[in-house]
Structure formats: C-alpha cells, structure tokens
Sequence to fold (406 residues):
Amino acid sequence: MTDPLSNAAPHAALAADLAALPLIKKWVSFASVSRDSNLPLIEWTRDLLQAQGVQCRLTYDDSGKKANLWATLPAQDGETRLGGLVLSGHSDVVPVDGQPWTTDPFEAQLIDDKLYGRGVADMKSFGATALMMVPELLQRKLKHPVHLAFSYDEEVGCIGVRRLIADMVDQGFRPAGCIVGEPTGMQVVIAHKGKHAYKTSVRGFEAHSSRTPQGVNAVAIACEFVAKLNAMHRKLVAEGPFDHVFDVPFTTIHTGVIAGGTALNIIPRDCEVTWEIRHHHLNSPLTLFNEAKSFADSLVPAMQAVAADTGITHKLLSVLPGFATEANSAIAQLCFKCAEIDSSLGAGKVSYGTEAALFHQVGVPTVVCGPGHIAQGHQPNEWIALEQVAWCERFMRRLADEICVN
Fold:
C-alpha cells in the first residue's frame, strides 16, 4: 500500500489562495480532545473576535474547564437577537491515542493537495473558515445578525451545545436559520437519523463453574440478548423499511461494549451490554426497544427459578433526536445557492448525528453543510482536500453576497 504522506510536495498555488488556512492551522494546534479542556481554543477565539468589536458570550460546563462560545455580528440597524443566521460547529475532537499517525496530529501539515491533522475534517476547517469571514461581514454590513456558535463535547453526546442553545433561548436570540458545518463534502444535508443508546445489565448468580445448574450465567444470558439484537438488525437490513436517500437506508442496531465475568472458573454474576438504535423516520426506536426488552423479559423466569434476586434491567443512556428540514425551506435553498448545487438533484440525508437536531428542536430551521468527508474523520492521518476548503470559502463568500447590504 502506498503511504499517503510519501510525497511531501505541497500544491503551493492552491494553498496560497486559501485565506482560511492559517486559522485552520491555529485551531488544529489546540489539542481540544473532548476529555480535556477546550478553554485555550475558546479563549483565543473570543479574544480574536473581541479585538474586532464582536460581542461574545461563554457558557461553561459544571467544572468551569470547558465552554461554548456564542458570538454575535449585529445587523446594520443594530439588531442582534431577531432573525439572522447561525454558523455552528464544535470545538472538540476525538482522541489520537493508539492511532498510527505519520504526522503530528496537532500540527496541521500540508502535503500535496491535502491538509493533515486531527479535526481538519471533523470539523475545525468549517469553524476557522467562518472566523475568516468575520472582517468581511463586518465591513460589508449585514442585513440581519450572524451568530457564530462553537460548542464543547459534541463528540461525547452533543453535551455542550445543549447549554449554548438554552442560553440562546433565554437571552432572546431567535435566529431564522442555522448551518451546522459537519463534513458533508459541501453537499446540503437536510436530515439525519436519531440515536437512542442503552445499557442493559444482567444480574446472575455466582457458583463454581463445575456446578453450572446451581448458577445463573450473566455473560451467557447477555450473549442471548446480543444475539436477539443482531437478529433484529439483520431483519432491518433485509426488510427495511428503507429511505434510500440516507447513506445507510435502514435503521441499525449495534452492540458497542459487553463486559462481564471475573474468572473462568466462576459463573459470572454480572454482565453489561451497551448498545444503540440509529433510526430514521420510518421506524420507532421505542417499538424496537420494546421488542428487545420483551425478549429479555422472557429470559427472567428461568433465571429466577434458580435464584430469586436475578434479573435484567435497562437504562437509557442518551438520546440524540433525528431531524428533517424541508428541501424547499429558505435555509436549504440558501445553502443550495451558496454551494452552487442544483436543488432539483435533491438534498442529502446521513446516518451520523449532529447538533443540527438540537437547533431544530427549538424551532431554528437547520441544515448540515461543511467541507471534508466523514470517512476521513476520527481516523489516523485525518485529512481534508484543499479543494474542499476552497469550496467552503467560495460558499462563505456567496453567503456574504446574500446576507450583506453591499
């Protein structure tokens, strides 16, 4: 296999034309992994914006070590709260631990026609390109306010944006639309699946492994439950229902973690299964959960016939709602125009979740459109093509033509 980094000759001409490149490199240099503080990135960004006269609000997590940033560029008439547009992205990135990186993941490097570094695709290039546009938007005057929304902890459950949005609502901001710049290859995405995550806990009964009839094997029962989840998934793959606009056209059920047992010669007392349902609008996650729960419930009588205090319980860990915006909505049509995409060809739908659903929930029409591709995110040697950055810059400048006075 050819090493993608073997040729170190950069495409200097294209790189020289990219005004956002220095800001992307600066953002990548902040190792804002979700488990760590993002304050160095957020405070640097706040200072950059405030130096240009932009009002900024920070909302913190309970520890005070992480923050969202909400920055407002006022309309020409001074309006800051009503109408206008949100350009939204997250500041955190996934870890690089154990990944075979060829470059320093927190030093963006330009090699050939690609930029390498953690977060260049997911999704610091969009945030940095939005920052690049601030001086031009201020100079050209805005018809309606523009807000920059940079959140913490998106990668671990869209946590930070919930506080950002709550503060947005409490402060009386009522945007007319939102663009979340997750990597879509600059295609306009109007829907994504929802996700329900669960932990199923099996309580068995310990005994010596030579006396299996006297014990209740929690690991074995958990495996029966996982087999049921797999059977449900296979049925969805084979029978649907299908929405073929999605990149994965059916609802999926996935087991991510299973943990239990202490030693080979001990019948395991406990086992936990962490699993998820990623659903589109044609399936009810509650119906699917109830099917899985009914199967688990059917196993309990035999367990309790051996030991009365055994059983199976379920905990809902998190919910990320799906969302859908009409393709003919103002925000979608604006993005089609700015991306120079023929809207008659149709908008996209994706299986991964984003913060778009949470803006959509509070009545802000939202689409997802950003540079890079999700396939390059979270990988060692994460990269983005320079042409994607250039496309995003062209998008932003066309957007300025639409929302600015002159």
User: Anything to note?
Assistant: The radius of gyration is 24 Å.
